[in-house]
Structures are given as C-alpha cells and as structure tokens.
Amino acid sequence: MKTMIYAIGDVHGKYELFEKLIKEYDPKIHQLILLGDLNDRGPKTKECWLLGMRLVKETGAIYLRGNHEEYFLQFLQNPEAWYESYLINGGKETFASLLHPGAVEEYSPTEMALMIRSRYGELVDFLCERPLYYEWKNYLFVHAGVDLTKKDWRQTSSRDFIWIREPFLEGKNQTGKIIVFGHTITPLLHGDMQTTDLWFSDNKIGIDGGAVFGGSIHGVIFDEKGIVQDIEYQNNDGEWIG
C-alpha cells in the first residue's frame, strides 16, 4: 500500500490545470484518486478523460464516478430524453471536444450518441466501470458524499454517492471516517462565493475549488495523520462566474 494519497478534485475539462497537478504526482509513493467530474463545462473533456484512463491503466490510479460521468452515460443510453438537461449542464462542451465544435447544430442527439459510441468504445466501457468510493485507513474518498442516516454508510444509494448535497453537508458524520469529497464547490460551502480554500467541517473535507467557474483546482496529499500538502492552482482564464 502506498504511504500517501494524492486526491484531485473536479477537473471539468480544464486540462492544463489537470496536467499541472499531475506533475506533482509520484506513483511510487502516492495513491492517486480522481474524485470524478473530469468532463463537461470546460473545453477539453476528451484530453482529461484520456489522461484519466491512462493514469488508471498505467499507474493504478483510482478514478471515481461523478455525477457528470453519470450524466454522459445516461445520455448515451437514452440520448433524446437526456439531451436537453445534459446540454445545459456542460454537455455542449463535451460534444465539441469529443466530436467537433458545432456538432450540436449539425447532428441529432441520437446521431451524436452513435458517433461517440463508435469512436470511443474503450473510453465508454472504462467510464461504466468507475467505482463510487475508495477507502484508505480512516479516510473515505467519494464524489458527492454519503447518506449519513444509514447505520452503515456503505448502504448509500448509487445516486447519493454521486449526487447528494444538503443531507450530507448538513448531517452529522458518525461514520468514523474523514470523508473527502468534491461535487459541491468550496466557495458555496464557505458561504461567500469567493473563498476557494479547502472546506473543513465535522470530519468532512471539500476539495472542489470551482476551477471551471473561475475558482481553483486542488490536489491534496494525505498521509495517515492528515493533510501533508494542498496544491492549489487558480484558473486565470476568466472572471469568477459565481
């Protein structure tokens, strides 16, 4: 077992920031954990996904499923039903990245789904296999959170692992675990829509700094005693959209 965890929050197509964080990754000592949502909203979903897949296959990284991976897979299963909601939640940028800019004006949802399945079969299969959580010592890594009303957090529904917000954020953590999660951006958790720092409360650690919205991306290194280093890169591409 590696002596440290290196957890990276929601990337959302911000490939250059993702690359910068990966430069700090040492597979000899770090167990890399990607907390999901590598896709949508940002411009380079394809590059982020291919890098994520390579890191899993070549270095044993853990890539957890996020709600945006789920959105994408649901779209592929039922393109006409999921198209509108997926489009407004970042899917348009993903279609442009996987196919080409303007694809949504040229093709129907069903046509785009067929082209994506045809061109990216290996990637789609890979995304379908992503786990929902990862345990390490007294830490639990998950995309969104867990159902804190369950006696055993492992009984959390698949949907809640990737979608839950207020019941997890406001509930009492009696799991015995320090829960590290993404999904809900830390500027929202801090309550000011400005602060991109890590968020700490009740043995919960939020690490999604909202990079795609003009905030920051975090790569957090843990050992069994706690946080060793928080590597934070600001997104300087544009203004904060909070």
UniProtKB/TrEMBL annotation:
<dbReference type="GO" id="GO:0016791">
    <property type="term" value="F:phosphatase activity"/>
</dbReference>
<dbReference type="InterPro" id="IPR004843">
    <property type="entry name" value="Calcineurin-like_PHP"/>
</dbReference>
<dbReference type="InterPro" id="IPR050126">
    <property type="entry name" value="Ap4A_hydrolase"/>
</dbReference>
<dbReference type="GO" id="GO:0110154">
    <property type="term" value="P:RNA decapping"/>
</dbReference>
<dbReference type="GO" id="GO:0008803">
    <property type="term" value="F:bis(5'-nucleosyl)-tetraphosphatase (symmetrical) activity"/>
</dbReference>
<dbReference type="GO" id="GO:0005737">
    <property type="term" value="C:cytoplasm"/>
</dbReference>
<dbReference type="Pfam" id="PF00149">
    <property type="entry name" value="Metallophos"/>
</dbReference>
<feature type="domain" description="Calcineurin-like phosphoesterase">
    <location>
        <begin position="5"/>
        <end position="203"/>
    </location>
</feature>
<protein>
    <submittedName>
        <fullName>Serine/threonine protein phosphatase 1</fullName>
    </submittedName>
</protein>
<dbReference type="InterPro" id="IPR029052">
    <property type="entry name" value="Metallo-depent_PP-like"/>
</dbReference>
